[in-house]
Amino acid sequence: MILMSPVGTLIEDVTRVSGLGDKAGTLIGVLAGFMFAEPGGFMAFREKFCTIGLGDVFDSWMGGHPNMRYTNGNEMKHALGAADMRVIAERTGLRESVVGGMLAAAVPLLVRAVTPGGILPMAMPTDLEPLVRACEQAEPPATQERDAARHEGTRRWRWLLPLSALALLTYCGWQGREGNAPDSPPKDTTNVSPG
Questions:
Q1: What pLDDT does 2 receive?
Q2: What DSSP character marks residue 72?
Q3: Alpha carbon distance 117, 134 (integer Å)
Q4: What is the pLDDT of residues 113-149, one digit of tens each?
Q5: What angle do CA 169, 174, 176 make, to 5 degrees?
Q6: Minimal CA–CA distance to 18: which of 105, 143, 95, 132?
């Protein structure tokens, strides 16, 4: 059962600190996939934090470090970049305005979970693979919501097309009647010689 495993414990911890509920597992799956899919894997992910001066903060998240330091949503956005934050928001179904804060809560716990004893992993831990695969195969929640909204919008305006066609036909019919109506009686154009 997943809740008895290290991944289950991680999901419970992320749920507790983030308040995400059911989406905590999705966030972890998306993050783990993102973390290890980069060229250079986990080391490249760590380097993002080192580049902006947060290497020591990142290292405090690693397993075996006694004092975990924390960061905030803006620092997460600065480290990962706006484009990656947008992708993570889309894949998790979180609003972009809150995804930074959720990552600030979840990334330290995920880093700690994948670095037991402070050792940097060379590949994704096998117990995370099923969760990552499930997130990759699922349609992104944001896409589902966007498609539902698009369908609702189409349904809402569906009546407008026949009404517009009826109005156009009525207008054309009215114009046709106006164009055929004589303005004055026709004049006799035959030549009549004076008698």
A1: 45
A2: -
A3: 28
A4: 999 888 889 899 899 998 898 888 876 654 445 555 5
A5: 95
A6: 105
Give the max Cα distance, the chain: 128
The residue type at 44: A
Could you give the C-alpha distances from 159 to 102, 155, 165, 166, 170, in angstroms and in order?
42, 8, 10, 11, 17
CA-to-CA distance for 153 and 69, rounded, in angstroms? 46
Q: Say which residues have a Cβ less than 8 Å from residue 106's Cβ, sequence separation at least 6.
A: 14, 17, 18, 24, 27, 28, 31
Mean pLDDT of the chain: 79
User: Is the predicted pLDDT of residue 3 greater than 50, yes or no?
Assistant: no
Q: Of how many residues is the chain composed?
A: 195
Q: Is the pTM of this model over 0.85?
A: no
pLDDT of residue 192: 56
Burial of 96 (0-12, 13-18, 19+ CB in 10 A): middle
Write the DSSP assignment of 54-119 as a string of letters.
-HHHHHHHSTT-SS-----HHHHHHHH-HHHHHHHHHHHT--HHHHHHHHHHHHHHHHHHH-GGGP
Tracing tokens 């004049």 back to the chain, one arrives at: 187
